[in-house]
């Protein structure tokens, strides 16, 4: 049977630490849904990566848990970054309208541009990661994301802000796509399903808490401070990926189908009426949600003039509902 994802992540892609002899005596392989570790005498001998001390056999369970936690934090952060980029900005929409002296409809295009960038970026980043591996496209996307977010913080006009929000979304799509691709590389079976459930939980919680975080940031600074915070988060995630997330797609598993093959696959999916029905229903539901989200800050301000914190709480409660 294939190795479970936990053991693959520990042995190959995420460095672990430990001291003492005995790490080379037998690999540790999780078995069952609970992830308990047992010694597999028939498995090949595995040594610690060069430059790292060997982990003691008695500390294998602790090392496996530490590795799983590290993978969860890295991939969870990548998954949460695009929702944070979208929704932390919501409480600041009226302030951006005043600061840039632009119509509310124009400022709402900054949300549309970011969302469109995320959608289009996934079409490009996915085939790139299949062709060149996960690490290089992810690092490139994170660097572009940091630069685009920093320029958003300095944008002097609504047009420039819209343009770099589009670029921010295009680059942020790398986190969405490659985080899920890494899970597929590292995990199999029940472990993969469990990890995808964790990422889905993070994807659901991040949009709920993001407006609350944005509202708190607005208490201490203006709308530009939100992009400064996002720039800092992007820098931290870039450094974490560079240091701890190694390449997970072996050269022999890569293929060069490109965007054309991806589009052909999507065409095949669209031919499935059941899939298309679910997709259209979900898309319309999200369209209604984002129409409300983009219009609610300005509409609430015109009708009742609430302060920023209640507006952020309203956005968060709407998302949770």
UniProtKB/TrEMBL annotation:
Its main location: membrane. The chain crosses the membrane at residues 67-85, 105-125, 137-156, 162-183, 195-213, 225-245, 274-293. It holds the Pfam family MFS_1. It is found in: Cell membrane. GO terms for molecular function: xenobiotic transmembrane transporter activity. Keywords: Cell membrane, Membrane, Transmembrane, Transmembrane helix, Transport. GO terms for cellular component: plasma membrane. This is Major facilitator superfamily (MFS) profile domain-containing protein. The lineage of its organism: Bacteria, Bacillati, Actinomycetota, Actinomycetes, Kitasatosporales.
């Amino acid at each position: 049977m294939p190795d479970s994802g936990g053991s693959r992540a520990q042995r190959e892609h995420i460095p672990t630490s430990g001291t003492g002899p005995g790490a080379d005596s037998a690999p540790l392989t999780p078995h069952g849904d609970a992830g308990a570790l047992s010694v597999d005498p028939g498995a090949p001998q595995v040594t610690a990566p060069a430059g790292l001390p060997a982990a003691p056999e008695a500390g294998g369970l602790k090392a496996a848990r530490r590795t799983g936690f590290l993978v969860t934090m890295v991939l969870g952060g990548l998954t949460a970054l695009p929702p944070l980029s979208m929704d932390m900005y919501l409480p600041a929409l009226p302030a951006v309208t005043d600061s840039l002296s632009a119509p509310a409809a124009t400022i709402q295009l900054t949300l549309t541009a970011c969302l469109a960038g995320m959608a289009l970026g996934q079409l490009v980043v996915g085939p790139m990661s299949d062709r060149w591996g996960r690490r290089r496209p992810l690092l490139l996307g994170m660097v572009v994301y940091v630069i685009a977010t920093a320029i958003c913080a300095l944008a002097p006009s609504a047009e420039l802000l819209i343009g770099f929000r589009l670029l921010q979304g295009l680059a942020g799509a790398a986190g969405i796509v490659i985080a899920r691709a890494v899970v597929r590389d590292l995990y199999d079976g029940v472990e993969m399903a469990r990890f995808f459930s964790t990422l889905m939980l993070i994807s659901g919680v991040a949009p709920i808490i993001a407006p609350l975080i944005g509202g708190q940031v607005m208490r201490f600074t203006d709308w530009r401070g939100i992009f400064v915070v996002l720039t800092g988060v992007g820098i931290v995630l870039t450094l974490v990926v560079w240091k701890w997330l190694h390449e997970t797609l072996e050269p022999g598993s890569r293929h060069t189908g490109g965007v054309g093959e991806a589009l052909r696959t999507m065409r095949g999916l669209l031919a499935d009426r059941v899939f298309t029905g679910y997709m259209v229903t979900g898309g319309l539901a999200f369209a209604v949600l984002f129409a409300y989200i983009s219009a609610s800050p300005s509409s609430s301000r015109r009708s009742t003039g609430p302060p920023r914190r209640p507006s952020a709480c309203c956005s968060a409660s709407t998302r949770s509902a």
